[in-house]
């Protein structure tokens, strides 16, 4: 998706200093319809996103690392342990497999 959201890492100060980001602003639905007369807004399929997010979370939690779910599809992982020499040398270093997530989604 274009634009930036909360949690994108830029922060308010970064947005204020970058002209393209400063010019972006959030708009209400009425403003969007006024600017784009043919706009069609579909309802979010929350259950689908919730299920997919839970599947991704389950895979991430198998690593045994601290995971924080910020939204349906945003996760914060403390991967510090993976960067240590001991973790890098270990044969059982967790590997993220996209196929696992796809299989869990069905």
TrEMBL record:
One Pfam entry name: IMS
GO biological process: DNA repair
Official protein name in the record: UmuC domain-containing protein
Phylogenetic lineage: Eukaryota, Haptista, Haptophyta, Prymnesiophyceae, Coccolithales
UmuC domain mapped to chain residues: 30-88
Highest taxon, organism lineage: Eukaryota
